């Protein structure tokens, strides 16, 4: 178990960790594929494709539809998906239980907090603002801000460099094996949440330092009193 006394900053994954984004992503993907003459994959299936950014999401959807796209087709489908997602992202995204109040409590620690997501950068800040949690984060790293996405450690190195932290000073909280692998490769301690999207796989298999069932469970491991009775 990692020693959390060294922690001087917190970083959070977005989709599946702070935000239930599957409704908006799947609605956009359903519209994209049906416009191209394919069946709608639906939310249950699309939620198993989330986690590696929009290009891979589109690639997985086209593979499911039986298409091996050339680069031009892939790009056009991605652009079509982005147009639909711009319309579905706000109504199709909600905070997971306890997220807002837990962030408010964590802010009392006066540690810098970052979001590190593979979601395309242009969607990230507006989404955090529309859910009214943007004020908690001094740093937002989206999928277009580094050449290599999670599970590569590059986005976490960017956080460490920007905040001036050593690797053991940043706790990374995520729901996917991409998050846990990125943290391990960077040398950062990690929390794996069980409620998100992880390709239908248990997050414990990725061996994060902590496995938590609720976002509010972060509070006691960081030495704050639990919100469990008030908020979930
Ligand atoms: O694949 C996505 O767009 C979601 O990415 P995230 O889980 O890193 O937030």
UniProtKB/TrEMBL annotation:
UniProt pathway annotation: Organic acid metabolism; glycolate biosynthesis; glycolate from 2-phosphoglycolate: step 1/1
EC number from the UniProt entry: 3.1.3.18
Top-level taxon of origin: Bacteria
Pfam families per UniProt: HAD_2
One GO location term (cellular component): cytosol
GO MF annotation terms: metal ion binding; phosphoglycolate phosphatase activity
Cofactor(s) this protein requires: Mg(2+); chloride
Active site residues per record: 13
Enzyme class: hydrolase
InterPro entries: HAD-like_hydrolase_sf (IPR050155), HAD-like_sf (IPR036412), HAD-SF_hydro_IA (IPR006439), HAD_2 (IPR041492), HAD_sf (IPR023214), PGP-like_dom2 (IPR023198), PGPase_prok (IPR037512)
Catalysis performed (reactions): 2-phosphoglycolate + H2O = glycolate + phosphate
Record key words, sorted: Carbohydrate metabolism, Chloride, Hydrolase, Magnesium, Metal-binding
UniProt binding sites for Mg(2+): 13, 15, 175
GO biological process, one term: DNA repair
Positions of transmembrane segments: none
Assembly and oligomerization: Monomer.
NCBIfam families: HAD-SF-IA-v1, HAD-SF-IA-v3, PGP_bact, PRK13222.1-2, PRK13222.1-4
Function text: Specifically catalyzes the dephosphorylation of 2-phosphoglycolate. Is involved in the dissimilation of the intracellular 2-phosphoglycolate formed during the DNA repair of 3'-phosphoglycolate ends, a major class of DNA lesions induced by oxidative stress.
PANTHER family referenced in this protein's UniProt entry, alphabetically: PHOSPHOGLYCOLATE PHOSPHATASE
Family of the protein in this entry: Belongs to the HAD-like hydrolase superfamily. CbbY/CbbZ/Gph/YieH family.
Name of the protein described by the UniProt record: Phosphoglycolate phosphatase
Source species: Biostraticola tofi
């Amino acid at each position: 178990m990692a020693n959390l006394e060294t922690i001087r900053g917190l970083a959070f994954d977005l989709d599946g960790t702070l935000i239930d984004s599957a409704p908006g992503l799947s609605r956009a993907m359903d519209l994209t594929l049906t416009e191209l003459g394919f069946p709608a994959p639906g939310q249950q299936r699309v939620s198993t494709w989330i986690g590696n950014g929009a290009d891979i999401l589109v690639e997985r959807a086209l593979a499911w539809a039986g298409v091996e796209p050339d680069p031009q087709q892939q790009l056009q489908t991605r652009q079509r998906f982005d147009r639909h997602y711009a319309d579905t992202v706000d109504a199709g995204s909600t905070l997971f239980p306890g997220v807002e109040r837990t962030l408010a409590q964590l802010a009392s620690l006066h540690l810098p907090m970052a979001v590190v997501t593979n979601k395309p950068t242009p969607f990230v800040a507006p989404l955090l603002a529309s859910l009214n949690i943007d004020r908690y984060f001094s740093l937002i790293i989206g999928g277009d801000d580094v050449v290599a996405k999670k599970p590569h450690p590059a986005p976490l190195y960017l956080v460490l460099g920007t905040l001036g932290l050593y690797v053991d000073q940043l706790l990374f909280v995520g729901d996917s094996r991409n998050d846990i692998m990125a943290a391990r490769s960077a040398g950062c301690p990690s929390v794996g949440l069980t409620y998100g999207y992880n390709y239908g796989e248990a997050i414990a298999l990725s061996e994060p330092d902590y496995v938590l069932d609720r976002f509010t469970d972060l509070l006691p491991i960081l030495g704050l009193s639990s919100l469990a009775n008030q908020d979930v």
